[in-house]
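Reopening: Aconitate hydratase, mitochondrial still failing for me.
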Amino acid sequence: SAPHCYFLLTHLQKQLALGQGARRMHVSAAFSAKAKVSMSRFEPSNHVNYQQLNENVNIVRKRLNRPLTLSEKIVYGHLDDPVGQDIARGRTYLRLRPDRVAMQDATAQMAMLQFISSGLPKVAVPSTIHCDHLIEAQIGGAKDLARAKDINAEVYNFLASAGAKYGVGFWKPGSGIIHQIILENYAYPGVLLIGTDSHTPNGGGLGSVCIGVGGADAVDVMAGIPWELKCPNVIGVKLTGKLSGWTSPKDVILKVAGILTVKGGTGAIVEYHGPGVDSISCTGLLKFCVSTYGVNSIILTINYYYCLGMATICNMGAEIGATTSVFPYNHREIAALADEYADLLVPDQGCQYDSVIEINLDELKPHINGPFTPDLAHPISDIGTTAVKNGWPLEVKVGLIGSCTNSSYEDMGRSASVAKQALDKGLKCKAAFTITPGSEQIRATIERDGYAKILNDVGGMVLANACGPCIGQWDRRDVKKGEKNTIVTSYNRNFTARNDANPATHAFVASPEIVTALAIAGTLDFNPEVDYLIAANGEKFKLEPPNADELPKKDFDPGQDTYQHPPAEGGAKLKVEVSPTSTRLQLLDPFDKWNGGDLEDMQVLIKVKGKCTTDHISAAGPWLKFRGHLDNISNNMLIGAVNIENDGINKIKNQLTGEYGGVPDVARHYKANGLSWVVVGDDNYGEGSSREHAALEPRHLGGRAIIVKSFARIHETNLKKQGLLPLTFQDPADYDKIRPDDKISIKGLKTFAPGKPLLAVVKHSDGTKVEFQLNHTFNETQIEWFQAGSALNRMKELQ
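Support: Ran it again with your exact input. Result attached.
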């Protein structure tokens, strides 16, 4: 890895230097085949290989005979077979070799249980587990963390021991949020990383292609099997102008979400480019430390903090359904690259995007998105009027900053800048106020530098370094369930009941500095650009636009060491114990294989009305504790979905008994009586989290097919992986032909083939029937998953 010392960049056009003692990023990027540079300071034997990336890109560019976008270079540069791979955007499936895997603790449980079932002795690529999802926000960081360690000891011990046995690095609870840890330790320009969390694209801020997947996809990669991804389209976002004032990088993605909606990025990578890229992230300057070791052997050490504004934008790209998002190096960084590989990390001149959006940052205003969906975008100047018109509560009950989307040192500093102005005028927050540091390093540094004190003094409470309220891990007690109220967060997702399990909470998303200002004002219709506050002495004053250091003047404080290395001697002699009586963990039994025939007379379990996210299909919050126990977690299957028959939630008719019951209960009854079932759904079914439990649970409880108008990418793949049939109406109007008490047969499975529709035969209870075509996106390999019963079953067949 790169030396932790001070180098002057005498051979660059513009001499850049890192301050003495600056904490370096993990990665030393090798721009020469002669230099072997570790991918991470934690993995000295795993090396960056730009030479292979470059060779693959050159092969593909010659084959396609056209300029490539940045994302194409990174994706195609990781092809398993760059010579023979069929490449067509939006059509063909690519077989890829990702560089590494990252898993958060809630999804890692099932991923590691599946890996254990594979029978393999060790992971084939560098992999890590990050404990961030199981810590509930309740009374404050230290006490909440201690409580989580006690309550979740069984799960943490399982993950730590499984990591040790199978060669997976383990980040202990309190380390921080997976995506921040990846930025600090594992992401680097050109890497292809998959993570079992939908906000894995956060790493795109550092020129990485980081993609959220389900646990079964992670198992494939950890097993050394090529990973399949439908060749993404590429949406270009051209940025012009410059950010200033109260406008932040968060407002870029809030604006993009309003343009593209929650499904506008499905099947595409969003690639940011243009002169405005230079102003993204006020922590924008990539700092270099270059040391020369002979001819053409240059080691480049990157300080990741340049990318955090860009990371914010890429992170929330998940909310538009994008496969991932990515930023290139900008002109200030390109000078530091060795000429030989400089074009790898920027798009080719003349490359073509499938569509282009242009945003003038000079004209962009602060935005607030919501409630109930992250694509309902409002300029801050309009939100008050819009809220009154729609009957949304104006009083802000809680402001919440941090999360994986906005928890950098500068984010905390800008919020503290706003809070300090209020304190200087004798004011505190009118709303409750919480702060979630992204990592132990951020927590320790903001505490040392006084930011944490300012935020506490203004009325805030610093929570644990974890996901917390962003994913529903919030023991909220200031309002009763069902009480209409407004909260404002700097998070990424604001689906109904997402943060606090209260369907009446109106959650809005904004930048940390806007959230801080609204928490101080206590009302949603406060616009800090033009509105005044009343100081303690009665004088009117305006908040000035926030200002904060990009990097701490005293370097970063790493805080406590929270990383567990896999044992150097290997884990062959180690054991991973799972108690048969555990309520938290359960070893997996293989799913049954396809019986060779068509699926006949399957009962409609529920016809879902409207938006159905993975939160609706498999809720988080208090259910997270069962993520390692498939039978127990299945008790939350579809309990948040709206039944079109009665507009009820978790209330469907059992067609065998005539009685109404909860969705999981009815599904279990059907399974016990040998009756297979299907779910019928609307548009963008399964948007949101990457959680594969939303696919595992229907399979476990006897489901065979999910028939909808359209799917979100990750969920569709997860369903295929578990042996289910994700199918779409060839004519979306056919959704209206299905009744809640229908039985459906799916014909054509004996000749199941890519691109060939299947036939639905729908029998109504009055004896009539209708038929229509169902489309699918299965390729030949995925059809083998279905026939074997699951992708894991097929993996075992091939061993």
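The longest helix spans residues 409-424. If you still see a failure, please send the error message rather than a screenshot.
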